[in-house]
Amino acid sequence: MNASKVTTKGQVTIPKEVRERLRVGAGDVIAYEFLENGLMVVRKMEPFDAGWHRALSTTLADEWNSPEDNEAFGDL
To answer: Of 41, 25, 24, 44, whose CA–CA distance to 33 is shortest?
Structure first.
C-alpha cells in the first residue's frame, strides 16, 4: 500500500509507484470519485477534446435554447 501525508495547505505528493501506474506527470489532471464507506477512486483525466466539445455545445445550444427551455431549466 502507498500513503501520502497531507500538508497544512492540503497538498499531498503522489507516490512514485502510483504516478507510474496512473501514467501521470506534471500538468496532468487527477479526478477523485467518492464511493461508499470512505473509499474513493483516483484516476487520470484524459485531455480535453476541444473539437468534440465545440460540436456538442453547438448541438445543445441549437436544441435547448428557447424561452420555454429557459423557464423550465433556468433554476438548475
So the answer is: 41
CA 23, 28, 34, 37 torsion-angle sign: positive
Mean pLDDT for the chain? 83
Q: For residue range 38-63, what is the model confidence (pLDDT) as tens digits?
A: 999 998 888 776 666 677 666 666 66
Q: Characterize the bridge pairing of strands 30-34 and 40-44.
A: antiparallel
The answer for residues whose C-beta is within 8 angstroms of residue 15's C-beta and 6 or more apart is 2, 3, 4
- The radius of gyration computed from the CA coordinates of the chain, to the nearest angstrom, equals 19
| Alpha carbon distance 33, 70 (integer Å) | 30
